[in-house]
Amino acid sequence: MKDKLIKLLDNAYSPYYKFHVAAIIVTNDNHEFVGVNVENANGTSVCAERNAIASAVAAGYKKGDFKELYIMLEKGIGTPCFACRQVILEFMEMDKKIICIDKTGNTKIYTVSDLCPYPFSEDDLKWKVALLD
Q1: DSSP strand pairing (66-73 vs 107-111)
Q2: pLDDT digit string, tens, across residues 69-88
Q3: CA 12 – CA 20 distance, rounded (Å)
Q4: Which of 49, 68, 74, 93 is catalytic?
Q5: Can you tell me the distance from the alpha carbon of 24 to that of 1, in angstroms, rounded to the nearest whole number?
Q6: Is 68 one of the annotated active-site residues of the chain?
Q7: Under a CB-based contact definition with an 8 Å cutoff, are residues 71 and 49 in contact?
């Protein structure tokens, strides 16, 4: 997976921050969907993790269809931003793995639960919806 991520980093569009990120989400049936960060001048950039998940969803995959997510930064090891963590929570179960890897192969493995110990989920919305009824 490391070599795929390294190649994918070249596709990132980061003219402003020069901070390339690549992600590959793997489905339970072992299909892989890729994503890179895409910046723009007004700041409404899209992260690699969300691009990968959105690609899989566009191909017909649903909540619970995902096994693991791989992430690589241009330099060092990093974890998903909080916007990405919320999307990850929406589509992956709490015990699924987020594998953060650098170009030399150093790896840190987290579960969704590790990165999102206090999730905001659909359960949090149920009481709000009940109030509206």
Answers
A1: unpaired
A2: 999 999 999 999 999 999 99
A3: 6
A4: 49
A5: 8
A6: no
A7: yes
